[in-house]
């Protein structure tokens, strides 16, 4: 299948505030129709990246293109037109308390000058899509947090933007409501063909909803790629965050080897790994293990305990030859 063209492209984007370098040479392409997660700790540059993506902050250097339009040099009316290609969803939904759910969804259509019949039809369509057709006349105070977020998503999609940018959309929600919102985002992507960018500090959100992911660290791209590629590429900080291992016994006497399962390797399970090592005459035990299903694929991470450093090196060589990412744990 041919690669989908990028709908969002950042090329060498840097942003400096005085002596502080908030972003450093960010280059990133997000294909049309993909859900892409951007993660990183506080201070990593996520908020600055959002502002550059939406034109609220011009980058100090580099280019930002959304849906074929370069927005980093736009100002005034031209920037406002370009920003219509991006729907925004926030952690704090910021619904208008004096308007009903239908009135909130209608608001951007009114600003865009849509006629009454068009507004009413689009509002009804969107509330149906987000599962709130029966709450059109409810005010925000009458809605749960998850329902308010659904209204916010419907409002963001009112003018049919090709891109939906979600800034920490679930961090104020409980686990079940978070799952429902993430399921909704995937269904909307599939139904409408939109491209979704999710900014989050929660690896679980990326694991459950995203097709690809970028890790920001101190304003730089530390790792980026398809979700399956990232979690099976080795013992990286992002892989550890997305598929965390349970703690192993700190008093173990042997050496530990970290192994990533999944991807294209023929060895796909912990049992397969132990069988390969047993056939080579290398005793090993599983010190810790995590298995997950990501995008319909079983992936996992293991920590194997072997006798000493020589055995650990033999294990990494042997499993690397089997197509697995394996390295001696620090």
From TrEMBL:
ABC transporter domain mapped to chain residues: 8-243
The entry's keywords: Amino-acid transport, ATP-binding, Cell membrane, Membrane, Nucleotide-binding, Translocase, Transport
PROSITE patterns recorded: ABC_TRANSPORTER_1, ABC_TRANSPORTER_2
A Gene Ontology BP annotation from the UniProt entry: amino acid transport
Pfam family, one: ABC_tran
Gene Ontology CC terms: plasma membrane
Gene Ontology molecular-function annotations: ATP binding; ATP hydrolysis activity
Family indicated by similarity: Belongs to the ABC transporter superfamily.
Oligomeric and partner information: Homodimer. Forms a membrane-associated complex with FtsX.
Role of this protein: Part of the ABC transporter FtsEX involved in cellular division. Has ATPase activity.
UniProt-recorded name of the protein: ABC transporter ATP-binding protein
Organism, scientific name: Intrasporangium chromatireducens Q5-1
Taxonomic placement: Bacteria, Bacillati, Actinomycetota, Actinomycetes, Micrococcales
């Amino acid at each position: 299948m041919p690669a989908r063209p990028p709908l969002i492209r950042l090329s060498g984007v840097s942003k400096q505030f005085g002596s502080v370098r908030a972003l450093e040479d960010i280059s990133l392409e997000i294909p049309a129709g993909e859900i892409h997660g951007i993660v990183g700790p506080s201070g990593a540059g996520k908020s600055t990246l959002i502002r550059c993506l939406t034109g609220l902050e011009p980058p100090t250097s580099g280019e930002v293109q959304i849906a074929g339009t370069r927005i980093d040099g736009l100002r005034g009316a031209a920037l406002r037109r370009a920003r219509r290609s991006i729907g925004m969803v926030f952690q704090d939904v910021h619904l208008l308390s004096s308007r009903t759910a239908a009135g909130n969804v209608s608001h951007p259509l009114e600003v865009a000058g849509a006629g009454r019949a068009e507004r009413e039809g689009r509002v009804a369509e969107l509330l149906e899509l987000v599962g709130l057709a029966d709450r059109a006349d409810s005010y925000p105070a009458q809605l749960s947090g998850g329902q308010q977020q659904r209204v916010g998503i419907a409002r963001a999609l009112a003018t049919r933007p090709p891109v939906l940018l979600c800034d920490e959309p679930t961090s104020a929600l409980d686990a079940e409501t978070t799952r429902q919102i993430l399921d909704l985002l995937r269904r909307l992507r599939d139904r409408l063909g939109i491209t979704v960018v999710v900014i989050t500090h929660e690896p679980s959100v990326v694991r459950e909803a995203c097709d690809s992911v970028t890790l920001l660290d101190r304003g730089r791209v530390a790792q980026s790629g398809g979700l399956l590629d990232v979690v099976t590429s080795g013992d990286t900080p992002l892989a550890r965050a997305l598929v965390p291992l349970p703690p192993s016994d700190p008093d173990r006497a042997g050496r530990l080897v970290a192994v990533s399962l999944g991807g294209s390797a023929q060895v796909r399970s912990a049992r397969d790994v132990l069988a390969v090592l047993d056939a080579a005459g290398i005793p090993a035990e599983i010190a810790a293990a995590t298995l997950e299903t990501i995008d319909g694929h079983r992936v996992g991470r293991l920590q194997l305990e072997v006798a000493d450093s020589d055995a650990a090196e033999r294990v990494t060589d042997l499993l690397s030859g089997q197509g697995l990412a394996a390295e001696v744990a620090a």
